[in-house]
Amino acid sequence: MGVIKEIRILRAGHNRAILAYRIRMKNRNTLITKPPAGERQFLPRLRLDIHTRLLLVGLVSLLGFIALSGIAMQSMRQQMIEDRVMKIRHMTEVAQKILQWQYQRFQRGEIDEASARKAALNELRALRYGKNEYFFVDDFNCISILLPPFPQWEGRDFTNEVDSNGHYFVQTQRDTALAGGGTIYYKFPKEGSLKSVDKAAYVLPFMPWKWLVGTGIYLDDVDQEIRDIRIRLLTGFGVVALIAGLLLALIASGITRPLKRLTEVIHRLTDRDYTATIEGKERTDEIGDIARALELFKRTGQEFTALQLELRQKEAAASEERAAWLEQQRESAIRLEQSSRLITVGELATSLAHELNQPLAAITNYCRGCVTLLEEGKADRQTMLEPMRKATEQAIRAAKIVTRIRTYLRRSEPSRAPLDLRAIIAEIVELAKFDIQHQDVRIHLEISPSLPPILADRIMIQQVVLNLIRNGISAMQGDGRHGRELTIVTICSGAFVETQVIDQGTGIDEEHREKIFTPFFTTKSNGMGMGLNICRTIIELHGGRLWASANPAGGAIFHFTLPLQEAQT
């Protein structure tokens, strides 16, 4: 690993070169203007040049002025409406005084009541103000008494009349007048038109004759005044904006022209073309600061390029060395896993020998019986067929046992393929069958028949399952109980399948739950302390996890996860 050490030394030298560059920049007498923080974060991402930024500032100012103008126009409209409402209130009070004056003439006996009413109506009919605004009079029964723009409607009952919004506007006028007077808003046609527009009216009662008198304004007249003001305002602003735009364009051109040459130099330096000539270093303004900084960057870049070339050569050598080291580690892991399988089979040797002895003893007995029948001359086809058939069945049984052992011990290059985890667990349970029966342990499987396939190496996963089963059986030895049960559960969780091996043994102390996975740590008197470490290495090699937890019912639970095939494709 000497090359890696040299690379680290080289990188340290590279860091020192960068530090020296920063110190040289700091010690320079010139001040290089830094852009504001907001500009560094936002504008560079938009890739805007200075010319565009200045124009953008002008555009934003224009939009801001337009927005403020809109707000101002709305406020002005509201203020104009309030002023008009105040005006029609005063005009309504004047109309009320006209009615009062004619009524007083009647009370003084100068004229009769009918003449007083007629005189008051004639005076109000002739009275106009503003944009030909008029006065109207209704009685408290919602019957029109005076309506100058529409005399044909005078005498009409408006009790059930509604405007285009569905409001009983005359009833509202009456109710407002009886409440002491006030402003109401409704829709009503203008003089010479039958199209209804928004209107605001102020009404007051005249109790002696049970009349209400009022006058109003049409809001579209206010809107027209606002539009006229807006047109004049925008015309003036357009002239100002045009002049300001020309000035901004001239200023932008004056700034961007000397920067274009420096921009071209920056592009060449970015492409590591350090032959570019930098102009303007003699200037005393910000452009000169940029030119001098680029010159310093150019010299530093030349030094850095040489340093980088040396670093790449060292990294290439280190990469080859690391690849060789990883291959060596891989071979060591494979040999260790193979050795672990051999040790496991060695530990199962007694059980396997007993399991093989049963079919071999049966074959021997059947063969001896056949020999005896032949020696006594009692052999015929029918007599010999049955014992020979049973001997054949026992031979096949023995062959299957040997095949399972050979398959488990067969060494091959690790390769991941779609596997049925349910079948793998069943194979290992069959392989450890005698050991399970000998220890008086029952195996309970909770495995879904529709479990998706996993992507793993068959032999390695068999090793993990067998190791965890044997550990669970070993944990339940010597507790004196009968009917002990080892449970294997599979749970499909997202992109992984979790397998749990649950025993009912003495359990694992909390302080040992992580230590049991370290090499050579064991709580068994005859253990090597490598089994669980190898199991965790295999599971992590497949992209999964292996951990232990306490069984609430007593004992321990070993969990491991493996990725589903569909999650890896």
Shape summary:
elongated
Total strand segments: 12
Helix percent band? 55-70%
Helix- and strand-based class?
alpha+beta
- Determine the N-to-C terminus distance: 36 Å
- What is the makeup of the main sheet? 5 strands, antiparallel
Rounded to an integer in angstroms, the radius of gyration calculated over CA atoms is 51 Å
Return residue spans where pLDDT drops below 50 for at least 5 consecutive residues.
Answer: 28-35
CATH fold name of the domain at 69-226, please? Beta-Lactamase
Structure explained in plain terms:
By secondary structure, the protein is an alpha+beta fold. Among the domains are: 69-226, 2-Layer Sandwich (Beta-Lactamase); 416-569, Heat Shock Protein 90 (2-Layer Sandwich), CATH 3.30.565. The protein has 15 helices and 12 strands. Helix 9 packs antiparallel against helix 10 (381-409).
Labels describing this entry:
alpha+beta, 569 residues, 59% helix, 5-stranded mixed β-sheet, Heat Shock Protein 90, Beta-Lactamase
Topology:
Elements: H1 2-27, H2 37-41, H3 43-46, H4 50-108, H5 113-126, E1 135-139, E2 144-146, H6 169-178, E3 182-189, E4 196-206, E5 211-218, H7 219-270, H8 286-347, H9 349-375, H10 381-409, E6 417-419, H11 421-431, H12 433-438, E7 441-446, E8 454-456, H13 458-475, E9 484-493, E10 496-502, H14 531-541, E11 546-550, E12 556-563, H15 565-568
Parallel strand pairs: 7-9
Antiparallel strand pairs: 1-2, 1-5, 3-4, 4-5, 6-8, 9-10, 10-12, 11-12
Helix pairs in contact: 1-8, 4-5, 4-7, 7-8, 9-10, 11-13, 13-14
